[in-house]
Amino acid sequence: MSPPHTIDDKAYDDSVPIAVQAQESKRRKRRILKVSVYCMFGIIAMGVFVIWLFHKDSKESLRFGNLFLFTVKLRRLEVKNVHGEGVLYGDMGRRLLATPYDHCWHDDYKDYEENCLQWFDTAKLHVEQYFPRNDSNRGSCYSLRWVGLSEKFVAEDCFYLQRFRWYGVLTDKTPVWPIESVHLEDLTEYYDEYPSVQNENLVPIWYGSQGVTIFVDSGFPFTVSWNVTKKRQFCISTMLTYDPDRPTRDLLRYHVCQADSIKEVYQVAQKHRKDLDTDFPAHGEKHELLRLPIHALSKYSDLEELVEQINKNESSCSLFEIYDNWENESYGDLDVNQQLLSKLSKLDMVDNSSCRPILPISTFFSYSSELFQEGVRHGFFVRDQQNLVTRLILWREREGAVLDVTNPDAAEWFLGHVRRLKTQLNVKAFKMLHLNIPPDSSYHDLNMTHLDYTRIFHRDLGTLEGVSLVLERATGFIPLPVYTPIRTRFYGKSGSKCLNTSVPYTLIMGLSGYPLLIADADLMTNPTTAMFMRWLQLAVFFPVLEIPNLPLLKNKTMQNFLREILDLRMSELLPHLEKIWRKEPTLPILRPLLWEWPDDVHAQAVGDQFMVGDSLLVAPVLCEDTTVRSVYLPEGTWVGYRNTNEIHSPGQYYKFSVEDFTVIPFFWRLN
């Protein structure tokens, strides 16, 4: 039974009036309701904000699959690999001021362009993804174009170098393999002159060890800076300004490609570049590999000496490069002088396929040449800003004019003379001599720039059948095979002479799309016996061997050494080179070690060795007085030349004695 209630068991507080307690209860309920309503509206507002945020991000970003993201508000570019790792970051339009933006309006389609953003009345950025056709490689390329809408806009994009190694040409005084300890301000003067005062091969392409490449269209004026801030950035800037007469022209245009490794990104980028060159026919045209050594002749007496040696059976007939001043009176005659014709007739070139000339030609016509007036009369030459042939070019200490290769009539006129020379001399190859053309020259094609001259010159000569083409200087990209000299030169280093730049420039030229490289000895003057022997041991591994005509080659000891080098080339190296060229004509023949071992940090840094294909490693002796050569052998099993002992390397350095000049450090890879 429940206990009886007492006086203390009240259900109310009798000290407070009942009406007051009821009123307080109502207020409490209203407060609870008000808080509930506030919470509900807060949740709704948060949901609306989240939805807006997602909508905002999708509208303010350009996204291509999962690999490319451009955040509009921050103008931040992020490129990822297939594993979702960020491999490249960039600040786009770094000098672009804050201004309203939206997608670009296309008048023809009466709609907004999906992959184009416009900062009103200031600039446009077009982004286009490239999808390789029939491509088994994983990777992608993106083309980026800035269009200026105001004179206040200067296009400049900066990419973070991060922890990765980078490779490419900045100046002829900075390292290229890899680019290390380099701090360069805006290279306006350097690229403003490119290639008007060009002394080396120069291709605007840069590779990162993470499998990224950035390259600029070869005909596009630009400048770069490197590592000028604490953020370690590589910046590309326009050299063009807003032109009210051409309001839609691009101020800056370049491409970014990404893949799993340098090997794969090279292949993706090459396919992209070839697809861009729509005016080049027959991209897949196959060129033969020049088997015979080239005798480089610098003057008429060299030819006389060569003919005499052949007649005495002291030298075998081979390809020979004729000296530059072979024309009748002056540059531009395009007519062989009689003295040269007489001497060439003794070589019986018509019936002897192995004894054929390589003829240097240029598009320069001096004042005194017979064809100068004809070219002026028909408007075949490059003109100045007043549309007159008064911007004379000084070339080889002569003044004259330069052929306008963009004029179809001028190109056909020139090719007619070249075809005549080809038949008259039974020419095996033409060597295209480099010209320095003023940047402000005008052409038949208004879109032409001096940066693209060599490329168009090559395109025209590429229509000739049965001949190969050799460049004196490479400028920009050429989608057809062409033989390209690497100017191997000696520099003073620690009291001796060294070929310390030859291998790095060779590696970057191979990755620039020039597989058919020649070790050029044009700059070799009065070398010592030791220097020349070391040079030969490097040059013999190149796809084409060029032998300079030097007095020391008359020495019997040197002749015997040269004969041994040529025997090695014919017996072992040339079959390997030809196999690579037949099997992989789109790939570099001479390759960096990181081509095969991309994740090996030591291979990424090696700039004094190279691979010939994927199975032959070469470690040339680069200094004349070297007695010991340190060689890095990546992981694998190797066997050396004249040494059958196998080396099972885990990936480490080895030292070899090279005091004996018959020792050439190269190794075959067994697995």
From TrEMBL:
Keywords: Glycosidase, Hydrolase, Membrane, Transmembrane, Transmembrane helix. GO terms for molecular function: hydrolase activity, acting on glycosyl bonds. Residues 587-669 form the Glycosyl hydrolase family 31 C-terminal domain. This is Alpha-glucosidase. The chain crosses the membrane at residues 35-54. Pfam families: Glyco_hydro_31_3rd. InterPro entries: Alpha-glycosidase_related, GH, Glyco_hydro_31_C, Glyco_hydro_b.
